[in-house]
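Re: that chain you flagged

S.,

Sorry for the slow reply, it's been a week of failed gels. I finally had a moment to sit down with the sequence you sent. For the record, here it is as I used it:
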Amino acid sequence: MNARPKKSFGQHFLHEKRYIDRIVSSISPKDGDTLVEIGPGEGAMTLPLLAVAKRMTAIELDTDLIPGLQQRAAAIGDLRIVHSDVLKVDFGALAAELGAERLRIAGNLPYYISSPILFHCVEHAAAIQDMHFMLQKEVVDRMAAEPGSKVYGRLSVMLQLACRVTPLFTVPPGAFRPPPKVDSAVVRLVPLPVDQRPAGDPAKIHAVVKAAFAMRRKTLANTLKGMIDEATIRAVGIDPRARAETLAPTDFVKLANVM
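Prediction finished late last night. Pasting the C-alpha cells below so you have them in one place:
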C-alpha cells in the first residue's frame, strides 16, 4: 500500500523503475559496503541497494513510513532504521558504531532542507567515502557551478573546497509521486583527500564566503569591509575591486587565512 506523501516533510516518492535503476547503477553498491540512506521513504532505492549490500542503515524522520519499510526489507537483507532528523546524526560516530572506516551515503533529499543537509555532510566528510543525492536540478547546478557563472555562490565554493562534485543525470517530475514542480538531478560527491583540502580554519573560510556573497553586485572591498582591508586583499594577489563570483574556491581560503 502506498503511503500518502506529507507536505510538511517535503516528500516526493520516486517510483519510476528506470530512474531507480540508473541511481542504483551510479552508486554501484557492493557486498560489504556500509551504506547509509537519508530519507528512504517507501524504499524505492533502499530495497535494490539492500539486495546487493545485504546490510544497510536508513535514517528516517517520518514514523509512519518505518513499519512498512521494515516489513518490505525483512525478506531482502538486514536493514537498520534510525529514527532521527539527519541534521542531528553524527556520521563519524555512526561509522564507528557500524565498524566502518567510511560510509557511503545516498538519498532523495527534501528540497526545502537540502542545503543544510549538504553542509552537515561536509562537516563529517572524514567519515564519508562518497555521496549520491537526488536534489532539485537548480541546486545541483549551483553545486557544480564554476567561477563566473550566474549561479556560482556560497554553496558552490563550500562544497567544491571539500568534495569533487559530479552531476550525473536529470530526473523529470513524472518520476515522482506527487510530481514536483521542477526537474530533479542526481549528483555524486566524493570528499577530497586530506592533503587536497584547504589548510585553514573552516569557520573563518565560511565567514569570508558568506560575507563575500551577501551582496553579489558589490566588490570584495565592500563586502569584506571590517573583516579584511583592501591592502591585505591585494597582498594575497586578489583585486579588491573584484566580485565574489569571479574568485576560485581556493581564493576564499587565502582571504580567510589573512583575516
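What I noticed first: Confidence is low (pLDDT under 50) at residues 5-9.

Talk soon,
D.
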